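Listing S7. Sequence submitted for prediction.
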Amino acid sequence: MDNESFVHLLEKMIERWDENLFSELSNSGFQDVRPAHLAVLRALNSEGARATDIAQSAGIKKQSIAYLVADLSNLGYVRIEVEPQDARAKRIYLTERGLALQVSILSVGRTFEHWSESIVGADRFRAMRHALALIAIEYRAGR
């Protein structure tokens, strides 16, 4: 383990996380959710979001977000409404099913965090989380 690169360890964790998340979601009745959908779902809250804002937040082209939003709409996870201030713009909101999906994702995440903390201990887990947050901030800033 000490000889493995940091990036390789992250890849392995993400792979395991994805397997666990989508297995748990499938068991909870969300068999139709794909990893790409998470880019849209992460950006939505009770106020909804415009497709352009979701694209910017996810770092994905607007056309790709439009495809994902249409797919999520067809699956019943989001609804699309005309933006009141600009009839050309659309606002995306979670449906009841979308809210239930978000709750499930958060629950799986909390369980994973508790499990991880039980492996390394509370202090080490807090330190690891803090270090990863700093790396993520610097990476997003392009430094």
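Caption to Listing S7: primary sequence and predicted structure tokens for the chain studied. The first helix runs from residue 6 to 27. The longest strand covers residues 86-94.
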